[in-house]
Amino acid sequence: MTTKPLPIITDDNREYWDYCQKHELRMQRCRDCGHLRFPVSFLCPKCHSTAADWERLSGRGKVYSYVVYRMPYHPAYQDDIPYVVAFIDLAEGPRMESNLTGIAPEDIKVGLPVELYFDDVNEGISLPKFRPAAKEA
Ligand code: ZN
Fold this sequence. Notes:
By secondary structure, the chain is mainly beta. The protein has one helix spanning 14-21; strands at residues 26-30, 36-37, 52-56, 60-69, 83-90, 95-100, 113-120, 126-132. The chain folds into two domains: 11-56, no CATH class; 57-137, CATH 2.40.50.840. Helices cover 6% and strands 37% of the residues. The chain has a five-stranded antiparallel beta sheet with strand order 6-5-4-7-8. β7 and β8 (126-132) form a beta hairpin. It is globular and about 45 Å long. It starts with 13 loop residues before the first helix and ends in a 5-residue tail after the last strand. It binds zinc ion. Zinc ion (ZN) binds at residues 30, 32-33, 35, 44, 46-47, 49.
């Protein structure tokens, strides 16, 4: 169990988190204009359509920007510092915010290729996080 703040599940985002629990990163692809939307939304921000399909993403991306937290802004993060919060440009287009782990903060570079993994924090929540991508064979 964690005492860290966790996502608040609502009727609007439940499907997204259900897929995360299955270790699948899925986002809504608009059925009318094709826009891949994130964060989860009832309406397409481009065309206002409500029709969408949950498309599975590759989990590959690149670091767009990041920040290193060197002091805890919440007591539950005391043991994690320093930790990294990064904006990841996903291969499919959307930019998402998450933790980047498995690399020393001083070794991170903008453009670093990363890959998705899931952190199973409890029975109901698996958080999508990122680590440096394995080298292509
Ligand atoms: Zn649309």
